[in-house]
Structure formats: C-alpha cells, structure tokens
Amino acid sequence: MKPEEIIQRRVALELKPNTLVNLGIGLPTGVARYIDPAAGILFESENGIVGLAAKPPEGMDDPELTDAGGNTVSAIPGAATIDSAVSFGLIRGGHLEATVLGALQVDEEGMLANWVVPGKMVPGMGGAMDLVTGARRVIVAMNHTAKGAPKIVPKCTLPLTSIRRVSLIVTDMAVIEPTDAGLVLRERAPGVTLEQIVAATTAKLVVEGEVPEMKLGVGGA
Amino acid sequence: MKPEEIIQRRVALELKPNTLVNLGIGLPTGVARYIDPAAGILFESENGIVGLAAKPPEGMDDPELTDAGGNTVSAIPGAATIDSAVSFGLIRGGHLEATVLGALQVDEEGMLANWVVPGKMVPGMGGAMDLVTGARRVIVAMNHTAKGAPKIVPKCTLPLTSIRRVSLIVTDMAVIEPTDAGLVLRERAPGVTLEQIVAATTAKLVVEGEVPEMKLGVGGA
Amino acid sequence: MKPHLKPEDAVNLIPDGASLMIGGFMGVGSPHRLLDALAASGKRNFTVIANDTARPGYAIGKLIRAGAVSRLIASHIGLNPETQKGMIAGEIDVELVPQGTLVERIRAGGYGLGGVLTKTGLGTIAAEGQRTIDIDGEQWVLASPLKADFALIAADQADYIGNLQYQLTATNFNPIMAMAAETVIAESREILPVGMIPPDIVKTPGVIVDYLIERAA
Amino acid sequence: MKPHLKPEDAVNLIPDGASLMIGGFMGVGSPHRLLDALAASGKRNFTVIANDTARPGYAIGKLIRAGAVSRLIASHIGLNPETQKGMIAGEIDVELVPQGTLVERIRAGGYGLGGVLTKTGLGTIAAEGQRTIDIDGEQWVLASPLKADFALIAADQADYIGNLQYQLTATNFNPIMAMAAETVIAESREILPVGMIPPDIVKTPGVIVDYLIERAA
Q1: FRET label pair with D106: which of B87, C80, C180, D142, CA 20 to 30 Å apart?
Q2: Which one of B82, B85, B121 has the shortest CB-CB distance to C107?
Q3: Do residue B51 and residue D112 have CB atoms under 8 angstroms apart?
Q4: Is CATH 3.40.50.10330 the classification given to domain A3-206?
Q5: For the whole model, what pTM was predicted?
Q6: What ipTM describes this predicted complex?
Q7: Would you say the C-alpha torsion A151, A155, A161, A162 has a positive or negative sign?
Q8: Mean pLDDT of successive 10-residue segments in chain B (221 residues)?
C-alpha cells in the first residue's frame, strides 16, 4: 500500500456519518475514495459548493463546477451552490465537522504551519486559516517526513496557520493526537515500529502503554 | 386637495429617476401614486423586495408577498426578492437613494424622532434607524402639526432615530431644508403664508428672500 | 434523509426556557404549524429572537398570548399590543434592536464573527449600554452576536435531506437564522425528493437543518 | 434599461489607477471578455481586489501579465508564479488576506459595516499590523472594510434592467462584490427580457448594476 493510501484510509475512519467535511487539494482529496457512500458525509469546497463529488466522466465536465483548486468536479444529487460569504459562514461558524489538510510543520503544541515559506514560497493562505480556525475538527494528513526531514517538530519555525491546536495528525507512520500533555502517539502504521516513529520525529512524543496498529478504512476507489 | 396629497405630490418631485427608494408605511406609501411609471424609480421594502408595486387586484393577492407593514402588495416585472441581510445591506450600504418617512418631531439641527414616546408608545424602531442612518437622502413627510401642536421644534424632546441630519422636511404647509445655518424655509404650500408657517413652527426658521410656492407632482392615482 | 416529525413531536424536543429564533416578518414566512403546536404545548419561559411578534394571537403572537415568552429580542412590537402590555407589566423582558442590526447580529452568531460594527443607533438610546469602537476617528456601535438553541423556520420547498428554498417576502430572516442555532427545525410548504431543487436555488444547505416537519395529515 | 456596452467601450470608463474588484475563483466566474479588453487597453496601475490571480495569462492573470496591476489584495496567488515574481520584484504590492476575511471585508464595504471581527489569522503574521479587539475577554482581529471604484463581475443570466443570476461555483465573490463598488459592470452569458428571471432567483438586484456588457458580435 502506498504511503498516501495508508493516510487516506486512516483519515476516512475519522469522518462521522452525516456531517460536512472539507478535504484539501492534493492528498486529502483522495480520502473521499475510502468513504462509504451510504454514510451521508457531505464534502464541501470553499469556492462554494456543498455536495462535491469525484471528477466527472470524460467529456461531461462543466467549467463552472470546480473545486477550490479550479479542477472540474461533479456533485451529488441534492448539492447546493453558495456564494463565498455563505461558504465561509459554514466554515467559520462551526458548521463544518472536519477539515483535512496537509502541513509543512506541526509542533508539540499541535500548532500547524502550512501556508508559507517566507522568501521562498508565498502562495497565500487561501481558505486554510479559516478552515483551521473554524472547523470543529482539524485533521492533518501528511507524510511523516519530507525528503527525510521530520515535519513533526518541537516548535514550528514557519509562520503558523492558526493559534488553534489541531485535533489529529495522521501520517504514513503514525496517528498522533495533540493534547494538553503533548503529542500522544495513538497508533502505528502497519509494520512500523515505535523506534522508527521516534527516529522520524524531532518533537517529543508521549507514549502511553502499548501503541496499537492503525485500522484502515475498507472502502476502495 | 387634502393635506396628505399635497405632501405626497411634493415629495414625488424629489425622487430621482432610476433610483431605489423606500417609502414608509402610511402617508409616505401614497407618494408612489404621483410618480411617473416611466421614471424607472424602484421601490423597496425592508422585509425583502426590490420592485414593490401597488396593492394587487382584489382576489389576486399572495400572502407571501407583503410590504413592511404586512400588507399584501404586487411587484413590477423584474422585481427581486431578497433576505433581510441583503435588504439591510442595500439600506445601510448606501445603495438606497432615498427614504421617505413620517416624524413625531424634527428639530433645528435636522434631527428626527419618529419611533418611540417613552412610557406611552414603544413600538420598536423596526427598520427606521437603519433607513435614516443609511439612505443617501432622508425625506420627512408629515403634517406640519399634530392636533395643532407644532412638530418642528427647537430641540427634539423624544428619543432620536439617528444622529444623522435629515435631508428635507415636506409638510402640508412648507418645504424646509435643514442646513448648517439652521432650518431654511424653501417653499410654501399653495395658499399658505409665511406668517402661518412661522406660527405653526416652534423651531427657528431661516428665511432667505422670497419663499416661492411649492410645485406639485402632476401624476395621479 | 432528515428526521421528519409531526409538529407536536417536534415541540417535545424543545425544553422550557429554551432560546428560539423564529423566522417571519409579521407572520409572513413564520412556521405556523410549529408555532401552533408550541403555543398549545404549555411550555414556557422562552427567549424569542424574531423580527416582530406579528399581531395578537397570530404566528409568534400565539406564543405571546400563551404567556410562553419571558424574554424577547425584536425590532418591532408595535402591531401587537399584547406584547407591549407584557413588557409594561414586566412579564416580558424586551430588548428592541434596529432591524438591520438584528439580522446582522444573528448572522454574526451563525457565521463565527465576533460582533457587528454599525452606525445605526449610534448616539441614540438604542445604543445605550453598548460599546462604541473608534476606528480611524469614526465611531461605530459594537453589537454582539446572537445564537439560539433552536431556529424554527419556514420554507417554501424542502427536499428529503433538508435543502431549503424560500418564496418572495417569506424569505426574510429564515435563511439567516438557519445558520445561527444549535438545532434547526424547518417547516416547509412542500417536501420534495432529493435533486428536485436545483443547487443554485437552494438558499439553506440541508446539512445545517436538523429536522423537517411532516406535511399535514 | 441599463446601458449596454461592448467590452472595449466599457474599458474606457475605467481610468488608470482605478481600484477594481474582480469576481471569480481561479478564473471560474470571472468576466473574461472584459478582462481581455482591459488587458489589451494598455491601462495600468490598478489596485485589484480578488480572490486570486488565476493562472499565468488567464483571467486576472492577463492583467498581471500586462503589467497593469500595481497593488493586489487577494487570498491566494500560488498558482500564478508571475504574480509571485511581480511581488518579489517589488512591482506589485501584494496584501494577502484569508479568504473568509477577504469576502467579509468586501461585504462590510458594501453593507455599510465598520469592519469585520474574526478569529481567523489571530496571532499569526496575517494579523500583523491589524488591531485586535477584546470582547468579554476574547480576542478578535478587526479587519477593515473594502470598497472599490469598479466591480467587474460575471453572471450566468442578466435581464435588461441588470438583475443577475449566477451558476454553480461561478457564483463565488461576484454577488458580494456587486454591492461594494461605486460602478458595477456585469458580463453575462445570457441577457434576457425583464421578467424572465424569477424574483427569488435574482441574486443581485439590477438596481446596483450600472452597465451590462453586450453579447459577443
């Protein structure tokens, strides 16, 4: 199983039936593949749609129906399209159950940096700051390291996306929950040892007893 | 001509073609009768309609199409219905050319009191405060006196509707413009003398030269 | 699919003392069947947030007549003397708010904003007890967000998953209130299969609606 | 009836140095014909307020490539390296604003509100230089309203008096921007006789639209 599939399948288990969820562009988008369609989970995109669905059949896409990356998408029966003010009303107002997004860094306090590398990459925050500040749960979905460099660090050196602590970190190696007591290691990816996780993490991890292996979502694309 | 018809016909001349106007319930509503339909003036009502029109034919009214007084109305072709937030966005955001409303008192500074008589009549301000604060022009349309008592007074004794000066006062006796120099008497109603106006007004009036007789709108219901 | 309830069962969800946002403008666009059931239920001590209290014994006026309202936040009560009497008698604690400020306060509550900055009411008794903020030398009234335990709203069309569409001036406060309450109960003239309300016509996405009222038997 | 203009004539209304709100999200729901004409006009020194600058040479990206933008207020420029280059070279003064704050700032400008109180960006570099307000012990970022000389927006249907309807995710910032500019120029896929867009479908009342762009010859 590819690292990103592990992450996507594990995140899929975090999403509650009949709730509204925002999946970031890239790796998080793929989480939708591992969701039971009967669970009634609604995906939204900050450019103004509730009820986003997968890419349309070849030749059937509509240029006025896109996700936040500008890619054409389809929609479920019962979708609703909304303006940007209503869209961020849903996000900021606590109506969004979960946002799933990538990270450049997450630190021991659960702070997230994911929008800018000063002097190098200044794309703008888009909707990320609203999502991380407003969603009821913030789930970071990312590879544990970037080119071998740990991304879970003692203290973010990059500018923060929000001063609100994220809810959960899901990587290809581990599931980690930021708490008042620090980053608690909750699960290991299949075949990954505690020692490997600790070695790939510069942040201090709290380990409480046995660390079980991840369960993975059973759906499939 | 009845006093209220004088007021309505005179106010009608103040309304500019192709603009958005709010007419208060009661006397101001009747201003619409004296507007040239070709002028493209759009009437709105704060409960959420742009393009309000007169009462529908008997038996053709719809209970879900009403003015701010809850009375059934009709609408022009090209009307738009909007929620209360958009409605007050139009009012507060400077998109409303004029509001025409009644008064309990107006004073020498052009301040308006029209929503409450403490201890006696506490109906609530409804949309009046937003209208008086937000409209580009505020036109007071009222009888010059109430049961013989002057309504244009040195200083409002009733609670103000806004600390924003009204643009014009049109009564059955006179047209008065509040300015930095005080209440300037601009016009007399047909057959009314300067002395009669002064006698019916406790506020100081500024009289500059000849005071011409009102022109009146020529349309008719 | 959303749970769908008879009005009298929906009313059982609402405890004494709950805060209720109620849609409508002089009863136009109010959830009448729900209000009938609530007034008949004998429940009381509600905080009601609404534009007005309609006329005596009509729409929200039924709750007033039933003595079910102990606190009211509204912009206008002039056409319901029973509300005014209740206020003067000290039975209803009434907070009068300019209509445009009221709708923005509800919106702020539902949209996660910290308050409303408006010129409306500035320097009048409507702003008494409220903070004013100086921004670059201009004064603004800071009005606080409003939220409620329940929003009781009325729509023209609903679908099975709670998407709502409104009609004409019956729209008014309904879509704004739907965003600002913990639990949203919607009464609709029609209830349609999913997909029958086009996405661009939906004003309230079903995901924020918790219960639909069944059609009348 | 609203004045209707060819894109190249509409562009003549816009002076060098004007502030422009431009609808669209990655070019979806942007007024493409108007942007083409504006980029070709040689006018420059614009302040652009928009969600993003799309991709190089596309939609608002055309204005960037033409060197017509000296100031930009946007939430995202990541997919247009030309904008980033212009920013780094000091040719474009870029203010990055969280998307939800950007849309509320525009709305506040158009709705006559004094600012936006949001938690978004609090304690981050996005809030640097901005005032925070303490409300009952909680901190909120106070973001200022935005207005513009022109809003250049795109609709799906217009009628002769300027009522506008939008489609799917091409809606985005368009109806909000239409409220916040001195002069509103709307480009629409269809232009219909008055009365063909039902009142409840109209998202932008024609009264705030100043000019329509004629259909392509």
Answers
A1: C180
A2: B85
A3: no
A4: no
A5: 0.98
A6: 0.97
A7: positive
A8: 94 95 95 91 97 92 94 96 98 98 98 92 93 98 96 98 98 98 97 97 96 82 49
